[in-house]
Amino acid sequence: MKKSGTKSSADKIERILITQPKPSSEKSPFFDLEKKYGVKLDFEPLISIVPISGKDFRQQKINIVRFTGVIFTSRNAIDHFFRTCEENKITVSQDTKYFCITEAVALYLQKFILYRKRKVFYGADGTNKSLFDVMNKHKENLSFLYVCSENQQDSDIVNWLKNNNCDFELAFMYRSQSNDIKKAVGEKDFDVVCFFTPSGIKSWFDNFPKFKQNGMVVGTFGDNTRAEAVKLGLNPEIIAPKPKTPSMITALDHFLADSNKK
Q: What is the pTM of this model?
């Protein structure tokens, strides 16, 4: 982690921290960025996901089959939804509609369902607003199940469901916990750090409570991640999703291209 504030976003970017697990495939677009711009990418997940057992989930007294629409904001949510259904021997109706924050999350459903035979919706640009635009078309006829972490829900989604008088429940199927990254990250000199979740930013400050951004460039994915970053005194310069940068990879690509022009 860069301890001095001598660099700025106008300086040459050499090392970037991606706060997610390292991609298993060598064909990942992240590695294409390394070759294209001659930068070094480090991967270090800030959080671990702990499943809530089917037995513990039953204590929430949620009847999954009652809900006709399911909201997913991450692949983790999808994994744990279908794991919970399997553990509790629940068969999800083929008429269930799925509402996903991004197209990438929506496509991940193919791991569990016959995608073309289900009704799957996602926002146009990965923002909460675009997700709400889609949900608004169906809210009158659906009861929503929002699958989320026990210790991290999207308050914008919860508030939208409440304000629109939707029939909904929060289903806690997993929880996040901060990883200890002090040794792995603390002595390295990063020019850019990219965050993907509010809980990831919380973990960062759990590890480095006195952290000051100084000259480091911060990237954030998602409205709530950016809001959490700003709340804790950070100034995000790389922001996704946006219409022209729907992923962190495209946002980094644009940022590095602009940096090389300076």
A: 0.80
Tell me the residue type at 140.
E
CA–CA distance, 134 with 137 (Å, rounded to integer): 6
The pLDDT tens digits of the residues spanning 229-261 come to: 999 999 999 999 888 888 899 999 999 999 877
Q: Give residue 23's identity as a one-letter amino acid code.
A: P
Query: In 109-214, where does DSSP find H-type helix?
Result: 128-136, 155-163, 182-185, 198-207
Q: What is the pLDDT of residues 116-172, one digit of tens each?
A: 667 999 988 888 899 999 999 999 989 999 999 998 788 899 999 999 999 999 999
45: left (phi over 0), alpha (psi -120 to 50) or beta: beta
Asked if 154 and 226 touch (Cβ cutoff 8 Å), the reply is no
Separation of alpha carbons 238 and 18, rounded Å: 13
- Sequence letter at residue 96: T
Q: Which residues contact 173 (CB under 8 A, 6 or more apart)?
A: 51, 52, 57, 77, 80, 81, 83, 84, 147, 148
pLDDT of residue 9 exceeding 90, the answer is no
Are residues 219 and 248 in contact, defined by beta-carbon separation less than 8 angstroms? Answer: yes
Q: For 49-66, b where at least 16 C-beta lie within 10 A, e where not — what string?
A: bebbebeebeeeebebee
Q: At what angle do helices 128-136 and 155-163 cross, to 10 degrees?
A: 30
Q: In what order do the strands lie in the sheet with 143-149?
A: 47-51, 167-178, 143-149, 69-72, 97-100, 119-122
Q: How far apart, in whole angstroms, are the C-alpha atoms of residue 23 and residue 27?
A: 9
Pairing between β-strand 47-51 and β-strand 15-18 as defined by DSSP bridges: unpaired
